[in-house]
Design goal:
It contains no helices and seven strands. It is an all-beta fold. The strands form two sheets. The chain has a four-stranded antiparallel beta sheet with strand order 1-2-3-4, with no helix packed on it. It has a three-stranded antiparallel beta sheet with strand order 5-6-7, with no helix packed on it.
């Protein structure tokens, strides 16, 4: 899992292990967001989290199926973080949201 951009709070991308990528990666699934996706994805054990336009969303990691959405009052440009059972992200409506990672409830 990637609980936040570049693995941890230092944002330095240090994994403690090497990453070997396939020579020709294939698309397993894709998702049509409700707006332009300008955030980095956050990958948890079960879900992938991001935002498009003013909609924050969680997708099932295995299938890409939408698990939940949360509509903010303005666009979302920041990348979020995952911790303590919540997906946390700031938006251009001057709010910082902590949404339940399983349900998307505030």
């Amino acid at each position: 899992p990637w609980p936040m951009m570049l693995q941890h709070g230092g944002h330095d991308g240090e994994f403690g292990r090497s990453m070997i990528l396939p020579a020709a990666p294939e698309v397993k699934w894709k998702y049509k967001a409700r707006g332009e996706v300008e955030t980095s994805a956050v990958v948890g054990d079960r879900f992938v989290f991001a935002a498009g336009g003013d909609t924050i969303f969680a997708l099932e990691r295995a299938t890409g199926k939408e698990a939940w959405t949360y509509k903010a009052k303005a666009q979302v440009l920041a990348s979020g973080a995952l911790g303590g059972g919540a997906f946390m992200i700031g938006t251009d409506d001057n709010n910082f949201y902590a949404l339940d990672e399983n349900t998307g409830k505030l």
